[in-house]
């Protein structure tokens, strides 16, 4: 039940803390009143068995995974009513990458904004990727390479997709006027320009093995963002 609501709404952090506290108290004391005097921390118990834990899940950690899932849905499910509403009412002027936190935004949307760095590590695309903010080249987000002078130097707006830097299947950047622009052009010379004629673009998400696939895995994403502890050899006996 908690997982379902977490996948839909951004629940308060104190909610997860309270539920985790109740679960911890029940495990150690067989009651939900207090977990005072426990010998092992709940964080350690909620690790996989091969890492000295019992294989339980700490809800507070899964809250981050569900938030990432909502961001994935924003990019990968354009037919969703929720996504359509967001594009019409929230991201109609600024993209996810350039929007800033605001009190006028809903808790679900606000929870998606502080994790842009994590999203950038997992999400990949080509034509639909944002030219400045997405990780679509080996040199990382171009906004970090050029700074905010970049749009003026390359004549590409902050909201533009990568495909806006192409024409007729070729890169169409202006002549390089800086070392950064020269480096970018060298990198682009090794990349195939995105082409709208090849059909709809597909968003990819990094799985546990570091490969990018067209689906989101809660389990593999959780394993990728959590703190990994040393393993033990006797986990099969637990």
Secondary structure blueprint with pairings:
Elements: H1 2-8, H2 13-29, H3 42-45, H4 59-76, H5 81-89, H6 107-112, H7 116-122, E1 123-124, H8 142-146, H9 150-154, E2 166-167, E3 170-171, H10 179-188, E4 204-206, E5 212-213, H11 218-225
Antiparallel strand pairs: 1-4, 2-3, 4-5
Helix pairs in contact: 1-4, 4-11
Protein name: Reverse transcriptase zinc-binding domain-containing protein
Organism: Brassica oleracea
Describe the structure.
The chain is mostly helical and 238 residues long. The chain has two domains: 1-121, no CATH class; 127-190, no CATH class. 40% of the residues lie in helices and 5% in strands. The chain has eleven helices and five strands. The protein has helices at residues 2-8, 13-29, 42-45, 59-76, 81-89, 107-112, 116-122, 142-146, 150-154, 179-188, 218-225; strands spanning 123-124, 166-167, 170-171, 204-206, 212-213. Strands 1-4-5 form a three-stranded antiparallel β-sheet. Strands 2-3 form a two-stranded antiparallel ribbon. Strand 4 and strand 5 form a beta hairpin. Helix 1 crosses helix 4 (59-76) and helix 4 crosses helix 11. The longest helix is centred in the first third of the chain and has 18 residues, at 59-76. The radius of gyration is 22 Å and the shape is elongated. It starts with a helix and ends in a 13-residue tail after the last helix. The model has no long low-confidence stretch (mean pLDDT 83). This is Reverse transcriptase zinc-binding domain-containing protein.
């Amino acid at each position: 039940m908690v997982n379902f609501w977490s996948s839909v709404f951004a629940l308060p952090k104190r909610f997860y803390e309270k539920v985790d506290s109740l679960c911890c108290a029940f495990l150690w004391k067989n009651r939900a009143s207090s977990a005072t005097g426990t010998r092992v921390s709940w964080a350690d118990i909620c690790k996989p068995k091969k890492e000295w834990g019992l294989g339980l899940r700490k809800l507070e950690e899964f809250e981050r995974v569900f938030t990432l899932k909502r961001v994935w849905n924003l990019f990968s499910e354009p037919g969703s009513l929720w996504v359509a509403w967001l594009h019409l009412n929230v991201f109609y002027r600024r993209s996810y990458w350039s929007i800033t936190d605001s009190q006028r935004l809903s808790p679900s949307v606000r929870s998606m904004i502080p994790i842009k760095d994590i999203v950038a590590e997992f999400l990949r695309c080509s034509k639909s990727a944002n030219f400045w903010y997405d990780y679509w080249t080996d040199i990382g987000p171009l906004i970090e390479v050029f700074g905010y002078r970049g749009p003026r130097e390359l004549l590409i707006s902050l909201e533009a997709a990568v495909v806006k830097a192409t024409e007729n299947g070729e890169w169409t950047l202006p002549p390089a006027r800086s070392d950064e622009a020269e480096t970018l052009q060298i990198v682009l010379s090794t990349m195939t320009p995105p082409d709208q004629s090849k059909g709809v673009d597909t968003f990819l998400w990094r799985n546990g093995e570091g490969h990018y696939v067209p689906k989101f895995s809660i389990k593999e994403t959780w394993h990728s963002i959590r703190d990994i502890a040393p393993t033990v050899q006797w986990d099969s006996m637990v």
